[in-house]
């Protein structure tokens, strides 16, 4: 059985994004944003952008 190229990449990005979101949700909330919270928010945005880019590429490839 042949695996499609890039499937593992999408899965890895999705898993890392899920781990980041879970870790961020475990942080205590307060009004001040600490540097680690900023880093979590930045990483969640970057991983979301990568995952969206991979999915758009997948749908474009299927359409053509």
Please describe what this structure looks like:
By secondary structure, the protein is mostly helical. The chain has helices at 7-25, 35-63. The model has no long low-confidence stretch (mean pLDDT 83).
Question: What spatial form do the alpha-carbon principal axes imply?
Answer: elongated
Overall number of strands = 0
The percent of residues in helical segments reads over 70%
Oligomer: single chain
Beginning-to-end CA distance, first to last residue? 23 Å
The whole-number mean of residue pLDDT values reads: 83
Topology summary:
Blueprint: H1 7-25, H2 35-63
Helix pairs in contact: 1-2
For this entry, give a set of tags.
75% helix; 2 helices; mainly alpha; 64 residues
Task: Write a short abstract of this structure.
The chain is an all-alpha fold and 64 residues long. It has 2 helices and no strands.
């Amino acid at each position: 059985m042949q695996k499609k190229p890039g499937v593992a990449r999408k899965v890895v990005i999705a898993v890392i994004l899920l781990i980041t979101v879970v870790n961020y949700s475990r942080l205590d909330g307060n009004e001040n944003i600490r540097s680690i919270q900023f880093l979590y928010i930045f990483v969640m945005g970057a991983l979301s952008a990568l995952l969206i880019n991979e999915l758009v590429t997948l749908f474009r490839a299927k359409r053509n």
